[in-house]
Amino acid sequence: MALEDLQHNFLTGQIEDLVRWARRASVWPASFGLACCAIEMMAAGAADFDLSRFGMEVFRNSPRQADLMIVAGRVSQKMAPVLRQVYDQMMEPKWVISMGVCASSGGMFNNYAIVQGVDQIVPVDVYAPGCPPSPETLMHAILTLHEQIRTGEIMKRRAEGRPTHIEASNNLWTPEVPVAVRIGTPK
Amino acid sequence: MSDTTIRTAERIELLIADTSEGAQELKHRNVTGRDELGRELGSVLRIDGLTLDPNSIDFDRNDDETMIINMGPSHPSTHGVLRIMLELDGEFVLRSKTVIGYLHTGMEKTGEALSYVQGGTNVTRMDYLSPVINELSYSLAVEKLLGIEVPERATWIRMMMSELNRISSHLVWMATNGMDVGSTSMMIYGLRERELILAFFEKTAGLRMNLNYVRPGGVAADLPDGWQDDVQVICDTIYARTFEYDTLLTGQPIFRQRMIGVAPISAEEALALGVTGPLLRSTGVAWDLRRTMPYLAYDKVDFDVIVGTYGDNFDRYAIRLNEIRESIRIVRQCLEMMPSGDYRSQDPKVTPPPRARINESMEALIHHFKLFTEGFHVPVGEVYSAVESPRGELGCYIVSDGGPKPYRIHVRAPSFVNLQAVPLLMRGGSVSDTITVISTVDPVMGEVDR
Amino acid sequence: MISLSADAPADVITSEAMATDIACFPTPSQYLKLVESFKNDGFEMCVDLCGVDYLEHFDRPLPEGVVATRFEVVVNLLSLSKKRRVRIRVQAGNDHAEVDSLFSVYPGTEAMEREAFDFFGILFAGHPELTRILMPEDWEGHPLRKDYGIGKVPVQFKHAPGPR
Q: Hey, is the C-beta of B15 within 8 angstroms of any chain A C-beta?
């Protein structure tokens, strides 16, 4: 075949970019709905706020087949070891979205029975506030995660073992700048 | 044994130790006592005439034939974090045991630390599929203790919102039940209809779920302008679509085979176990608190109480489907008969002054401040007040010591009591029936574990 | 005034003055027989059973002749035929609270009594399996007692911990 025929039929790119594209375009969530937030998560997967357009409508029941664990709901003391076991069973690369205020910080339940923030058990990548967060908020959190996967920032952060936007040399605590808050809108 | 094998065995033991329930685990038959075995087999009934025939319990069954497996707490059945231990003979369930507590939030303890105004936010998150009805039960209890009257419009608004909430809860049930039985399209349809109701809730109360709308003294805000059109659209759309669900599910042979005759329960067993709601009505007992012990304005509207005959899964499905239609009927009557007036009691002890007056008058500001920081004081006493939630009788028992916070608040959750029927219903069925049984019992783990 | 049936134990104190519903105040020894008499009298369902810890409200209003103790067990019964409710309050004891279990009369109280044991430490004699139901199996203490703190954690503003 002559080379002229191949003019418009191929594209080049870095393998990393292709891998990141594939990773963010088909993130499969593990179903870990616990309480009220689980209903909003189900609503986000249903017809009105379709998660299928991001390739995410398949909530895998087996954690071994899932990439993303959306911790939706309050985590009680009895549930905490189960949460950790499900997280351990997931394959790399895996991400965690903490959905709702109960999962992010204990929410309105600051008492003996609720773990004050699921980040005491598993490392969390994105926090979605709300009680419960409406499906639009959850989608924003998911898209934030997609953006971080697309730019590769999240894998870089993992490799270095610390949040990338806090200067390593500066030992003072600096307030965090929200990452990828605006997606697709001009700065 | 090589090194890795030993470590794996230790590791497995550590993993099990983390999440096992210790003495409550189901054990093999040779280490389970006779009484325990009889009890685990669902023969929780020792009332005359209903004891399980001891000859039907196979005490000497060989352990090799049966298998003990564990379902949950994280499992595909979309009904929350419920753990069930099953002893199986092949595909059939011999005995089962439920373990709950994976969503325990200490809400009763938290309720003692929150004032009566804030209490609604706590109670509303127990049964998260019908938040308005939780708040209603709590508000009715507090109002009984206070001894105040709620204006008529507030009563009718509460009734309309409760019925809309009942419709949305039953729609979620239809969606998850459909998905458990295998029909994913039912999931999409149910949640799609529910969005109509949630949009109306957002317009009225500001939130889709866990709306802190029904408060002691009335409701938080009046209905928005143009609500009649919105509610009319909701009623007409959902009513027409219930017939589509009939086409999809009710007459369909696969659905019928999975639901008819599966897991029947008799009326005596249901009453002995304290079961209420559609589970009790499916046995033929026509007990619905809205009809038998009316609260709000249910004695002024016309609706039917749906009752089943056989107590099996299909009856419970049909009851809930028809309850959607009855609730639409009630909402239509509310639409016509809604009185005008105040949307909350004008009693200054309970109600803050209008927001605009805070800028003008110092007394109004102080009044508002006291009411929202300290709260109102409720006279000493105790009360138990019950309403009919989509799952059964939802009761609220409050003990007051005269202060601004409840001394003890206990919520009688219908799913907590209904779950006691699950071992009885699962016995003798197959593993696939366990899913439909949990689904039709309709537990909401938020209120089971509180 | 509620009329107790003939087979109820004698001298059970009742009172209509307690907010709503009629309340009966049996002693622990009269408790089981009273409940059985209600069951035979048409109260088919036991709707609710819970415990209350009156440590901080010890001088609550009670009718004459009832000796107050720290723990109380409150039972609500429902009669479907008569459409009535009745409430029974038993004074369960101070340090080692123990009452009879209603499991033999109403099997539906199994889970409710386990919850009362879990949260208050009230023992129910005759219950088939009195174990913790909502707290983890190895939890120490009874959370809803008044001398058990709520377990508030001071809110810390921490920056995100490093992943893994």
A: yes
Length of chain B measured in residues: 450
pTM (predicted TM-score): 0.87
Per-residue pLDDT of chain B (450 residues; tens, 9 = 90+): 445 555 666 766 766 666 666 666 776 666 666 666 655 555 444 443 444 455 555 555 666 677 888 887 877 665 788 888 888 888 888 888 888 888 998 899 999 999 998 888 999 999 999 999 999 999 999 998 888 889 999 999 999 999 999 999 999 999 999 888 888 889 899 999 899 999 999 999 998 988 989 999 889 888 998 899 999 999 999 999 999 988 888 888 988 888 888 888 888 888 888 899 999 999 988 999 999 889 888 999 989 899 988 888 899 999 999 999 999 999 999 999 899 888 888 888 888 887 777 788 888 888 888 888 888 888 888 889 999 999 999 999 999 988 899 999 999 999 999 998 888 888 878 888 888 888 899 889 889 988
Task: Report d(CA B274, CA B44) in Å as an integer.
Answer: 12
Domains of chain C by range and CATH? 13-125 (3.30.460.80)
Query: Best of A116, A127, A165, A177 to disrupt the C interface by mutation (most C CBs within 10 Å)?
Result: A116
The verdict on a CB contact (< 8 Å) between C163 and A161 is yes
Give the residue from B389, B427, B380 showing the smallest Cα distance to B57.
B427
Domains of chain A plus CATH, in order, are 15-160 (3.40.50.12280)
Chains touching chain B at 3 or more Cβ pairs under 8 angstroms? A, C
Return the closest-CA partner of residue B285 out of B298, B295, B270.
Answer: B270
Domain residues of chain B, as ranges?
3-99, 115-416+434-445
Residue of chain C with shortest Cα separation from B42: C107
ipTM: 0.89
Residue in B20, B417, B420 to test binding to C, most C beta-carbons within 10 Å: B417
Tell me which residue has tokens 């009594």: C113
- State in words which class domain B115-416+434-445 has: mainly alpha
Residues facing residue A97 across a β-bridge: A70, A126
- Taking alpha carbons only, the member of B175, B80, B177, B174 closest to residue B126 is B80
Would you call A157 and C163 a contact, using CB atoms and an 8 Å cutoff? yes
- 8 A C-beta contact, residue B409 and residue B145: no
Q: Which of C46, C50, C138 would best serve as a mutation to test chain B binding (most B beta carbons within 10 A)? A: C50
Angle between helices B152-181 and B184-205 (to 10 degrees): 160
Which of B:32-51 have CB within 8 Å of C? Answer: 35-36, 39, 44-47
Q: Which residue of B has its CA nearest to C148?
A: B109
